[in-house]
Design goal:
Number of helices: 2
CATH class of the domain at 205-281: Mainly Beta
CATH topology of the domain at 205-281: Thrombin, subunit H
Strand content: 5-15%
Low-confidence stretches: 192-206
Largest sheet: 6 strands, antiparallel, barrel
Order of helices and strands: HHEEEEEE
Shape: rod-shaped
Number of strands: 6
Distance between the termini: 137 Å
Helix content: 55-70%
Structural class: alpha+beta
CATH superfamily of the domain at 205-281: Rod shape-determining protein MreC, domain 1
CATH architecture of the domain at 205-281: Beta Barrel
Mean pLDDT: 81
Length: 281
């Protein structure tokens, strides 16, 4: 029950009391003055009692009104505090929303910039992809040429190997023919008068012999000095490169201006242009 309803009830009670008194007064005809006086006293007592009841009702109503006012004031203060708190929360949320909107706008600008960068990267990727496809085609052509060159090189190496074997066989044959020529020359000189066995020997230079490697094939090597320089079959020549010892060349074939043999005690790979000598002293 709210405050207005209680006030309305009190006013209705007061109006009802006064209306009932007036009605009783108008409806009753006094027989005499004593009866009228008694009646007035009774009416006055009733009126006083009604007034007391009304006063009590008003006092209770005022008390309830005070309590309602206090409760209303307390509830208003609490609601005012809650409203202020909610207003502060709303303001904080509005500030947060504004900050989020600014961040969203910055993110949108950054996203557009990244999209432009991504578009440029995609265009560059397409160009690089096309260039890569071209390079792949070129690489395939190069690989085909390399395979063809490798096959040709194998054929050339096989041909050179065969030619080297033939060359070695021819050198052996030439060496044998040279020996036979020497024997025949010695026999002719011995058969001539005034010529001794020593007179028919070919003079050989004495001392240290020096030369150079002209070709290398596996562990075989040839040099640019021969019997005319004092090189003999079975001789071991030192192979060196600047101050580095490469190995020994054991002479197997000798010709007047060149010789060939096997590389033994090899320390490093012999190369064309390495030096050979019979002594390093």
């Amino acid at each position: 029950m709210n405050l207005l309803t209680k006030i309305s009830i009190v006013l209705l009670l007061v109006v009802a009391v006064f209306g009932s008194i007036v009605f009783i007064q108008q409806a009753t005809v006094p027989a005499n003055y004593m009866g009228l006086w008694k009646h007035e006293q009774a009416k006055s007592a009733m009126l006083e009692q009604s007034v007391r009841h009304t006063s009590l009702a008003l006092a209770r109503a005022e008390k309830e009104i005070g309590e309602l006012r206090a409760a209303f004031a307390q509830d208003s203060a609490a609601k005012q505090t809650d409203i202020l708190s909610k207003v502060g929360t709303i303001r904080d949320r509005e500030l947060a929303i504004a900050d989020l909107n600014r961040k969203l706008e910055a993110a949108s600008i950054d996203s557009r910039a990244k999209q432009l960068t991504l578009d440029g990267a995609e265009a560059a990727r397409k160009i690089l992809s096309e260039q890569l496809d071209g390079l792949r085609g070129t690489l395939k052509d190069v690989e085909d040429r390399y395979r063809q060159t490798a096959e040709n090189l194998k054929q050339v190496e096989a041909y050179l190997e065969r030619e080297l074997r033939v060359n070695q066989a021819l050198r052996l044959q030439i060496a044998e023919l040279d020996e036979k020529v020497k024997e025949l020359t010695n026999k002719i000189q011995l058969a001539q008068p005034g010529k001794g066995a020593e007179g028919g020997e070919e003079a050989k230079p004495a001392g240290v012999v020096n030369g150079q490697v002209t070709a290398v094939n596996n562990n075989m090597a040839s040099i640019n000095i021969g019997s005319a320089h004092g090189v003999a079959v079975g001789q071991k020549l030192i192979i060196y490169r600047e101050d580095k010892f490469i190995g020994y060349l054991k002479v197997e074939e000798v010709f007047p201006s060149e010789a060939a043999g096997i590389v033994v005690d090899q320390q490093f790979e012999p190369l064309r242009g390495d030096k050979v000598t019979s002594s390093l002293k």
